[in-house]
Write a structure and sequence with these properties.
It is built from 9 helices and 18 strands. The chain is α/β, with parallel strands linked by helices. Among the domains are: 91 residues, FAD/NAD(P)-binding domain (3-Layer(bba) Sandwich), CATH 3.50.50; 103 residues, FAD/NAD(P)-binding domain, CATH 3.50.50.60. The strands form 6 sheets. The chain has a 5-stranded parallel sheet, covered by helices on one side. A 3-stranded mixed sheet has the order 1-17-18. It has a 3-stranded antiparallel sheet with strand order 4-5-6, with no helix packed on it. Helix 2 crosses helix 3. The longest helix has 14 residues. It is globular.
């Protein structure tokens, strides 16, 4: 089951809905999501401490309590708990290219907004979802955009409604692209790339390195949590997500992805759904990645403006030319 329009962010557990203050939008915005998180925190009166850095994690030998040492405005202090969950995400730690010029002031690993790049020459390094979305927004805000990607094609994990858009912009030439290319240097006014042994200098006023992020592996090690040296995935029990090295420590979210963040949010989730369904549990799946959803489903529904527009076997919907053109963005 999938929806062509998705204008609300809703949780069945809390009954909270975040809607745009202006008009319903096709997809939830970052501001809507943040407002939803605030409302959840308020509803459950969650105690939240800001501005503290976790330094270490130990176990009290006498009480078996976990002791988390932090540093904040009041200095260092210890917090005790029966269990600790590491849901640290990974956006604070970008994957660096380790090339000359990466630390120049016009270079950033984070994309925020497009207006400041109006009529600027912008080079985006990367070929997955963040790079594609940034390229489209910058292009439509008046920037001259060039994408540089080390692979021969864009990433398969790009959102299904974004992928045909970025591919069409590249095909028509409104967004330039250099595939199978790597960045070797960034200068104050250019990005030097290499493609099959030949170098090219791309003029650039701004550079966005959308090369992905990773969890704080140093923090995990400082807390005595073992990680797989090959994947950087913390060692854990897959059925409980409990650490294999420290009892009553659990992992949640992106930290479980290690070096590769995409599978945990896409392939792994679908693997779990398939396994649950094999055990005889019916599943109602609401998923934005419609193609993947229809691959695992037996039946599908197309919702348009809150009403069922089409209903059929999943295979039939996948092969329906009108569905693929109208709702999946294929041409």
């Amino acid at each position: 089951m999938f929806s062509h329009y998705y204008s609300q962010l809703e949780s069945g557990a809390t009954g909270i809905i975040a809607e745009s203050d202006i008009a319903p939008l096709e997809k939830p915005t970052r501001l809507e999501a943040l407002r939803y998180y605030r409302r959840v925190a308020e509803m459950f009166d969650l105690p939240i401490t800001f501005g503290e850095t976790v330094l270490s994690l130990t176990t009290d030998a006498a009480t078996r309590e976990l002791v988390v040492r932090t540093r904040g405005t009041k200095g260092e202090q210890d917090r005790r708990a029966r269990a600790v969950v590491f849901a640290v995400g990974y956006y604070d730690h970008p994957n660096h290219l380790n090339i000359p010029g990466e630390d120049l002031p016009h270079v950033s690993h984070y994309y925020n907004e497009a207006h400041s790049s109006y009529r600027q020459r912008v080079v985006i390094v990367g070929g997955k979802n963040s790079a594609a979305e940034a390229a489209l927004e910058l292009h439509r805000s008046g920037a001259k955009v060039t994408m540089v990607h080390r692979r021969a094609t864009l990433g398969a994990s790009i959102k299904y409604w974004v992928k045909p858009d970025i591919e069409n912009r590249i095909a028509e030439g409104s967004i330039a692209a250099r595939f199978e290319s790597k960045v070797v240097e960034i200068t104050p006014d250019a990005v030097v790339i290499e493609h099959r042994g030949r170098k090219e200098s791309l003029p650039a006023d701004r550079v966005f390195l959308m090369t992905g992020y990773h969890a704080d592996f140093d923090l995990l090690k400082a807390c005595g949590l073992e990680i797989d040296p090959a994947t950087n995935v913390p060692m854990h029990d897959a059925s409980t997500l409990e650490s294999s090295s420290v009892s009553n420590v659990f992992f949640a979210g992106g930290v479980l992805a290690g070096k590769d963040t995409a599978p945990i949010f896409i392939e792994k989730i679908f693997e779990i759904i398939i396994e649950i369904n094999k055990q005889g549990t019916p599943i109602l799946l609401v998923e934005q990645n419609a193609l993947m959803a229809l691959e695992v489903a037996q039946r599908g529904y197309v919702l348009e403006t809150g009403k069922v527009a089409l209903a059929d076997d999943a295979k039939a919907l996948r092969e329906n030319e009108d569905v693929r053109k109208t709702y999946l963005g294929e041409e």
